[in-house]
Specification:
Elements (H helix, E strand, L loop, with lengths): L1 E2 L2 E2 L6 H10 L6 E5 L5 H7 L15 E7 L2 H12 L5 E7 L16 H29 L12 E5 L5 H10 L4 E3 L15 H8 L6 E4 L8 E4 L3 H11 L28 H12 L5 H12 L4 H4 L2 H6 L25 H8 L14 H21 L7 H21 L5 H23 L9
Parallel strand pairs: 3-4, 4-5, 5-6, 6-7
Antiparallel strand pairs: 1-2, 8-9
Length: about 450
């Protein structure tokens, strides 16, 4: 963080400043959700604030919820936080790709096997984390002779029906589930302006894509018909791509300058495009690199654009809408009571009864993501090694084997469709992988 051209101490970074504001607030019985992986500086900072320490009865004024992609992530991050005096009250398992906004793909590990691991190792996780936490409390001279509140384990990402919701809760022993994207179509609880509500309701599969939009370089789900996307494309067509970077929250890159730039900014794009033109890339490589670089969007500003339009703060704002692929299963604008009734199985709001099962949808998205990664590899623009792709493929095939056995828990036509979809996706994976690598036949 800079002020008057001078670099300020670490605690003045946006992340630590935002956290400090929450930690020092008078909010009670509140929680902060940590996402996007382990941040040592932030994680070490949390333990400095008393509201995140238990009182004499083991209760927390403020709690930490940790988003994780798999069991290993939960164990590593949970122990890291525990050794710094921070108790995680909830581990929120989120599908690596079948979710809205930024996506954090695993190396082909699928939701079903991940949940199975959590179910089988849940108490082992609690014992390890509790032991680390109590040891830290003793080092800090704090009495910790009370029972800590049980860890909650929840799941989210692509849930579409009450049946799926209840199955995840009962079979995998989850303490709760999360629904996100469908609520974008509920005006009572989300801030989407009327025009973009209609575009969400009418979105096709081509309109909701996993993109390179984010300046963080993390894959990002986005509505391609949103005005922010259209505005970016118009700038590219006019020969003046990039953002003026009005907020500067994502200025991290020092490839061309000592002072960080945002890779969605106009100044960075000009430098990067010149570099591409002056290097010895093939026409195919240049085309791919240009498309990838020019996809960057000013998320700092445009993610709040719909809010600004809805409340007439800025009627000319150009919103970016970060819906997940599950939005495609809902084709109308709904009331909150109707959406709640759908979640609890009293009514169905699905646009089609042909929707694939949650696990099938995620598997299909992972295969699509693998296709993109293999294309980059084939253009010699990837730092991935064949070992990575073998691991990815093996994990997907292991997940498919798991789902074949899992299908025994499904009934009638649901099971029949599930197995048919699973078989087709397995063949698609085999064909895709064989197109890039020589490998033994997979059965």
């Amino acid at each position: 963080k800079y002020s008057m051209g001078e670099k300020k101490p670490p605690e003045y970074s946006d992340a630590l400043s935002a956290f400090r504001g929450f930690a020092n607030s008078d909010l009670d019985h509140s929680s902060m959700v940590l996402s996007a992986g382990l941040n040592p500086r932030l994680y070490g900072y949390i333990g400095k604030f008393k509201d995140f320490k238990p009182d004499e009865n083991g209760n927390f004024k403020k709690k930490i919820i940790l988003k994780v992609s798999d069991y290993r992530s939960a164990e590593v991050q949970g122990k890291f936080l525990a050794t710094r005096g921070v108790w995680v009250s909830e581990y929120r398992i989120e599908s690596g790709l079948n979710c809205g906004g930024h996506a954090f793909p695993t190396h082909g590990l699928l939701m079903g096997p991940i949940l199975e691991t959590f179910m089988n190792k849940r108490y082992e996780l609690e014992e390890k984390i509790t032991a680390s936490y109590r040891k830290t409390m003793e080092k800090e001279g704090r009495v910790c002779d009370f029972e800590l509140a049980p860890i909650r384990i929840t799941v989210q990402g692509g849930i579409g029906t009450a049946e799926e919701d209840q199955f995840l809760m009962k079979y995998y022993n989850m303490d709760g589930t999360g629904w996100g994207s469908p609520f974008l179509l509920v005006p009572e609880v989300t801030n989407i302006d009327g025009e973009h509500l209609e575009r969400l309701a009418n979105a096709t599969e081509e309109d909701v894509r996993l993109t390179e939009n984010s300046p963080s370089t993390i894959p990002f789900w986005s509505l391609r018909t949103a005005d922010g996307e259209v505005n970016r494309d118009e700038k590219i067509e006019s020969g003046d791509p990039g953002s003026t970077c009005p907020n500067g929250f994502l200025k991290f890159d020092t490839e061309f300058t000592d002072k960080p730039l945002c890779i969605a900014s106009r100044s960075y794009l000009r430098k990067k495009l010149d570099e591409i033109s002056n290097n010895n890339y093939s026409p195919a490589q240049i085309k791919y690199l240009r498309e990838k670089i020019l996809a960057r969007t000013c998320l700092c500003r445009d993610l709040c654009g719909s809010f600004e339009r809805k409340y007439h703060i800025d009627d000319n704002a150009k919103p970016i809408i970060c819906c997940g692929p599950n939005i495609l299963n809902f084709k109308k604008i709904f009331t909150l009571p109707d959406m709640v009734s759908h979640i609890y199985g009293r009514i169905s709001l699905l646009a089609s009864s042909e929707r694939a099962y949650i696990f099938i949808n995620e598997l299909a998205i992972y295969i699509d993501f693998l296709k993109k990664e293999l294309k980059e590899f084939s253009l010699e623009l990837s730092d991935r090694m064949p070992k990575y792709f073998n691991e990815y493929k093996d994990n997907l095939l292991s997940g498919i084997d798991y789902y074949n056995k899992f299908s025994e828990h499904l009934d009638g036509e649901t099971r029949k469709k599930f197995l048919k979809d699973l078989s087709e996706l397995k063949q698609s994976l085999i064909s895709l992988y064989a197109g890039y690598f020589e490998c033994e036949a997979i059965t």
